[in-house]
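Students often ask why inverse folding is considered easier than folding. One informal answer: many sequences map to the same fold, so there is more than one right answer. In these notes we will look at a single instance of the problem. The structure comes first.
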């Protein structure tokens, strides 16, 4: 079925995706059975980590045979054949085709944390989840227009980009440039 669809359409407009595989892997990671990064092609189990030299197995739980079989099938039929579950790629491609640029507003530009107390999704050493929010803006949007969309009419003192570098309000937001921003409110 996939090859029939691929022959009938432009390969640049197709992204293979298995959302159920992504949900399954995220749930297993949250429950502590596997180590999985969203959008990655790699899934590590306790046994995999022990083989790689981690004596504790990364603190992951033991898998029963049924779960081991399901994970191995998913690795073979989805991850190894197609490189990932495709969910992150679908979202990226959709934004690209619609002419949208993802902007990641953060409170702490150095750790990319959302501020507040570390909680679910927090990376060690940061305050709160990293890149918790993503706002899609039209291509050609300035930093100032982006700020208005995110913080509203609050007075904007200045804007910082990656590395703590101040960014002009007139600069255009593009993928990879001015797409991680910290808005400082005040006069």
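Output (designed amino acids):
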């Amino acid at each position: 079925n996939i090859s029939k669809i691929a022959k009938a359409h432009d390969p640049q407009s197709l992204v293979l995706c298995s959302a159920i595989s992504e949900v399954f892997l995220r749930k297993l990671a949250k429950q502590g059975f596997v180590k999985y990064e969203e959008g990655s092609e790699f899934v590590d189990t306790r046994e995999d980590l022990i083989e790689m030299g981690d004596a504790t197995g990364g603190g992951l739980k033991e898998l029963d045979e049924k779960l081991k079989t399901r994970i191995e099938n998913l690795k073979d039929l989805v991850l190894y054949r197609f490189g990932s579950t495709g969910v992150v790629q679908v979202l990226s491609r959709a934004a690209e085709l619609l002419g949208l640029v993802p902007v990641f507003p953060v409170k702490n530009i150095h750790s990319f944390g959302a501020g507040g107390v570390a909680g679910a999704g927090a990376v060690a050493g940061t305050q709160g989840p990293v890149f918790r929010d993503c706002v899609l803006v039209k291509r050609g949007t300035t930093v100032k227009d982006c700020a208005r969309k995110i913080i509203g009419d609050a007075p904007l003192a200045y804007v910082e980009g990656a590395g703590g570098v101040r960014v002009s309000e007139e600069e255009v937001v593009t993928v990879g440039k001015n797409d991680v921003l910290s808005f400082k409110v005040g006069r």
